[in-house]
Write a structure and sequence with these properties.
Keywords: Cell membrane, Membrane, Transmembrane, Transmembrane helix, Transport
Pfam family, one: TauE
Number of strands: 0
Helix content: over 70%
Protein name: Probable membrane transporter protein
Radius of gyration: 17 Å
Organism: Sphingomonas parva
InterPro entries: TM_pro_TauE-like, TSUP
Strand content: under 5%
Number of domains: 1
Shape: globular
Largest sheet: none
Mean pLDDT: 82
Order of helices and strands: HHHHHHHHHHH
Oligomer: single chain
Number of helices: 11
Structural class: mainly alpha
């Protein structure tokens, strides 16, 4: 499809901002996916193109964290494979069944995560005692990866919350490893979209260039300012994504909430 130059520039600007925020707290798709839809890109093509640009931005953020020494590749090799396999399975499953029911459940999880980051134990930069072993970490990565391939919104926030609360990582290291796991799940989802022919390549690469710049800047900001910058952004992205999901007229949770208020 043909898009005006101004529209492409708008989408690149959205990708830069999304890459910056995603590198620090996740949730960049909250910006880019609505922007693609507003530009007139068909929904499935918007999902595929968003996966393409997001993969580049996430890869850049991961590389920045890794060069700064915040990533343990040996420990997270198997969880990364689990996230990839889980996402591939989720992308296959969502083509077989109706995923609508998840749109009612996910806002509750996002609100719970926001409350955890607001009122949970203070999170420093030092790692703490882990509550789960290698098998548990593998299972968590596979489950969240499956969710990313099946539905998607909030995946980065879910990974970060799990790595802080269950694995005991310091907040910056949790975000760093989130980029690794999210990159794997993004790539699996992207391959599924490529196979289905749902990627606008030129637009995706243009947005990817902007997302790379934003991801690099966001990763540097997270490393420099640490948890005092990451934590508020995580809360804001969780609540922002919750609001976006609940504003969807087709979301069953919106009707239920309206009934309670009424």
């Amino acid at each position: 499809m043909q898009l005006a130059y101004e529209t492409i520039l708008f989408l690149m600007a959205a990708a830069f901002v999304a890459g910056f925020i995603d590198a620090m707290a996740g949730g960049g798709g909250l910006i880019t996916l609505p922007a693609l839809l507003a530009a007139g890109v068909p929904p499935v093509a918007a999902l595929g193109t968003n996966k393409l640009q997001a993969s580049f931005g996430t890869a850049t953020a991961f590389a920045t964290f890794a060069r700064a020494g915040h990533v343990d590749l040996r420990r997270f090799a198997l969880p990364t494979a689990a996230a990839f396999a889980g996402s591939a399975a989720g992308a296959f499953t969502v083509q077989q069944i109706d995923a609508t029911f998840l749109s009612a459940f996910i806002p509750l999880l996002l609100v719970a995560m926001a409350l955890y980051f607001l009122f949970g134990p203070r999170m420093g930069e030092e790692d703490r005692h882990t509550l789960i072993g290698s098998a548990g970490l593998f299972a968590v990565a596979a489950a969240i990866g499956f969710y990313d391939g099946f539905f998607g919104p909030g995946t980065g926030s879910f990974f970060t919350t799990a790595l802080v609360a269950l694995v005991g990582l310091g907040l910056v290291r949790a975000v760093a490893h989130t980029k690794l796991l999210n990159l794997a799940s993004n790539l699996a989802g992207l391959l599924a979209m490529v196979a289905g022919g749902h990627v606008l390549w030129l637009l995706g690469f243009a947005m990817a260039a902007a997302s790379v710049a934003g991801g690099k800047a966001g990763a540097h900001a997270a490393i420099r300012f640490g948890g005092r910058a990451v934590r508020p952004l995580l809360v804001l992205m969780c609540l922002g994504l919750t609001a976006k999901l609940l504003l969807d007229p087709d979301n069953p949770a919106r009707a239920a909430l309206a009934g309670l208020i009424g």
